[in-house]
Amino acid sequence: MFRVKYVFLQFVCLLQEKKEREREMALRNIMGKRVGIGLMGSRALSTATCDVESGSAKSINLYSAINQALHVALETDPRAFVFGEDVSFGGVFRCTTGLADRFGKARVFNTPLCEQGIVGFGIGLAAMGNRAIAEIQFADYIYPAFDQIVNEAAKFRYRSGNQFNCGGLTIRAPYGAVGHGGHYHSQSPEAFFCHVPGIKVVIPRSPRQAKGLLLSCIRDPNPVVFFEPKWLYRLAVEEVPEHDYMLPLSEAEVIRQGSDITLVGWGAQLSIMEQACIEAEKDGISCELIDLKTLIPWDKETVEASVRKTGRVLISHEAPVTGGFGAEISASIVECCFLRLEAPVARVCGLDTPFPLVFEPFYMPTKNKILDAIKATVNY
Amino acid sequence: MALSQLLSSSSRSGNRLKSLSSAISLRHPISTDTTPITVETSVPFTSHQCEVPSRTVQTNAKELLTFFRDMALMRRMEIAADSLYKAKLIRGFCHLYDGQEAVAVGMEAAITKKDSIITAYRDHCTFIARGGTLLEVFAELMGRQAGCSRGKGGSMHFYKKDSNFYGGHGIVGAQVPLGCGLAFAQKYCKDEAVTFALYGDGAANQGQLFEALNISALWDLPAILVCENNHYGMGTAEWRAAKSPAYYKRGDYVPGLKVDGMDVLAVKQACTFAKEHALKNGPIILEMDTYRYHGHSMSDPGSTYRTRDEITGVRQERDPVERIRKLILSHDLATEKELKDTEKEVRKEVDDAIAQAKENPVPDSSELFTNVYAKGLGVESFGADRKEVRATLP
C-alpha cells in the first residue's frame, strides 16, 4: 500500500518538479552557477540539469540508480576504484552488483572488517590522484573512521598548502531508519560531519537525484561523504535517465512551491514532509518544500529567499533534535531573516534518545508531528 | 531384569563389564554420579608461545549429562528463535548461535560467576550459560518487559549483571577493549577473577583489537581474548579477509592456544588452562575452531558463500551435541531413550517460555526516555511537535 502511495507521490512530485525546473533554469541563467572543474585537469564537468531531460529514462529504484552511477564512474575514469566490506558480490544492498565482473578485482574489491583502515586507505589512494569510492556498510559503523575523515581527509589540502589533496575520495554509507533497524542500523550521523570544514556532505532524496548527485560527488575535487537513505533503496522508484548526467552540489532545490511556510529537509524525510504538505494544503496552508541536497556547504541563498517569501520555516530530520543540522539552519536563518520571521523556527526531529528498538514509531518525526508543527507555526 | 538389560545393552560399543556392573547396581538417577571418567579431546591443542594443556580431560557422568542438557536447550532455543523470527514476532536483527554451543557451555564449566564474560552480538546462548532464563531470552527478543534488558536492547544486547555477563554488543570489535578494562578492574580489586572477551574472525581484523592486546600485555591484565572462529565473517571466508587466519598467533607477544570449539571438553580444558595462565602471566588468546549452521543473521540464508555439503558435513562429523550424546552412550551413562526424553523436556521448556513471553506486555512508552542518563535524570519532550522539553536534574 505504502509502495503504491509512494510511487504515486513520486509521480506527483515529478510533475511539480518539471514546473520547478523551468523556473530554476531561468534563475540559474541569471545567477550563472557552475559546477566545479574536474580532478587533476581531467574532463570538465557538465552543467547539471540541462542534460537530465535528454535521452531515454527507465523506471528503477534507488540501489539500481546508485549502481548505474558507479558503473558510469568506473567506465569514464580508469583510475576509479570501489572498495568496502562485501562490495564484490554486490554489497548488502546490491548497490555494487556487476562492478567486479565488469571492471575486475583490481578495481572493485573487498576489504576486511576495518572502517578506519578503509577510509585511511581511501585517503591515501585519493592522494595519488585516483577516485577512491569507499563504502561503509552502515553509517552506524562510520565512527571508527571518524578520525580519518575529520583529521586527515578534511584537512589534507589545507595543511599541505594545496600541495596534496584527497579530493578523489567519496565515502558512501547507507543511513537512516528502516523500520526495524534498532540502535545500530538506523542512525543518521550527518550532523557530526557537518561540523567539519573541508569535506562535503550530500544526501539524495530519490533515485534520479542519487545518480546525478553521486556522479557529481565522485567527480568533485573535494572529499565527500554521501549518505544514502536505506529506507528508499527498494521503496523509491523513479524514472532515471540512462546516460551520464550530474546534478550540482551546494544547490538546494525547491521541490514544491508555497507561500505560507518553508519546509527544509533532506533524504527520506522529504517524502514524509511532502505528505504533511499535502495534508496541510487541505487546511489551506500553502507549503514550500526545499530539498537541501548538500548539507555542507549548504545553499543559504535559496533557503533565505524562500523564508523571505513565506516568513516561517520548519526543519525536519531523523537525527536527534539537539545538535542536529536543523540547529545550524535555524541559527543561520534567524541571523539573516530575524525581522522577516513571523514565528519561531520549528524543528521536528528525532528525540534526544539513542535510536530505540520497539519505540521507533514514537521516536521518528512522523507526518502528524510535522503537520502539527506546521499548524502551530502558521497560527503563531 | 538384569539379563534383559544386558541383552539390550549388548549392541552398544561400551565395556561389557561396565554395563554389567551398572546394570546390576541401580543406575537411576545417573545424573548425580560423579565418578571420574577420562576422555581424550578430539584433536590435540596447538599453542603459540606457551605450553600445551593435556589432551586428556577428567569429567564425570553428571557433568556430561548437564552438558548435553544445556547444549540441547540452547540448540532448541535457537531453532525456536528462527521460527519466531519468520513469524515476525521477533523483528530487527537476530544472530543465531546453533553449532557453537560447545564454546558457551565449555567456558562456563571452567569458570565461576565471578569471572566476567563479554561478547559480541551472537549472545543468546552465552546469556543462558551465564544463568539467564528462557523467559528473559524470548521476552527480550520479542521486545517485552520481562526481557533481560527490559525489552530495550533486543537480540544483540543481552546483559546479566549478577553473573558478570557484560553482554551483547552490536559494533564489531568494540567489546574487546572494554573487556580489557574489566580485566584491569579485576586485577586492581584483587578479585582473583578473569575476563573472557569474545570476538569473531571478522572482528579479528579490527584495529582496536591490537590496541587491546598491547594494553593487556603491557599491564599484565587477566584478560582472555577468545576468537570464536566460525570461518565466516558474515559472508566473507576467513582466507579472504585475513592474511594470517591463525588467529591464535595474531597476538605475537601474547601467547595463544588453538582449540576445537566443537568439543565441549576441549573448550573446558582450554578455559581452565587459560584462567590459570591469565591470573599468573597476563593475557592469552584462545582460538575456538567452531562453526555456525545458520547464516550470519536471519536475513542471510547462509548458503550463498558456502556449500550445503559443507554445512551437513560439519553437522555429521563435528556437531557438539551429537558428540556428547555418543560419549554418554558409549560410556553407558544413560540410555538413548533417556536422552531423547531430556530433549523432549527441553523442547517443552522452550515452548512454555515462548508462550509466557508472548503474553508479556511491551514496555510502557515512557520507557523511551528512561535510562538515557543515570536514573532520575533525563530529558522528556512534550507538546504536539515535541518542542517543549523538560529536563529533570539531580
Structural account:
Chain B: One of its GO terms (molecular function) is pyruvate dehydrogenase (acetyl-transferring) activity. Chain B: It is an enzyme of class 1 (oxidoreductase). Chain B: Its cofactor is thiamine diphosphate. Chain B: It comes from Hibiscus syriacus. The complex is a heterodimer of chains A (about 375) and B (about 400). Chain A is an alpha/beta fold. Chain A has two domains: about 55-240, Thiamin diphosphate (ThDP)-binding fold, Pyr/PP domains (Rossmann fold, 3-Layer(aba) Sandwich), CATH 3.40.50.970; about 255-380, Rossmann fold (3-Layer(aba) Sandwich), CATH 3.40.50.920. Chain A is about 40% helix and about 20% strand. In chain A, strands 3-2-4-5-7-6-12 form a seven-stranded mixed β-sheet, sandwiched between helices. Chain B is of the alpha/beta class and about 400 residues long. Chain B is about 40% helix and about 15% strand. In chain B, the strands form four sheets. Chain B has a six-stranded mixed β-sheet with strand order 2-9-10-6-5-4, with helices on both faces. Chain B is globular and about 55 Å long. At the A-B interface, β14 and α15 of A face loops of B.
Task: Identify the quaternary structure here.
Answer: heterodimer
Largest sheet of chain A: 7 strands, mixed
In helices, the fraction of residues of chain A equals: 40-55%
Q: What class do helices, strands and sheet pairing of chain A give?
A: alpha/beta
Determine the strand fraction of chain B and express it as a percent band.
Answer: 5-15%
> Can you tell me the residue ranges of chain A where pLDDT is under 50 for at least 5 consecutive residues?
24-51
Count of discrete structural domains of chain B: 2
Please tell me the overall pLDDT of chain B.
88
Spatial strand order of the main sheet of chain B: 2-9-10-6-5-4
Measured on Cα atoms, how large is the radius of gyration of chain B?
Answer: 23 Å
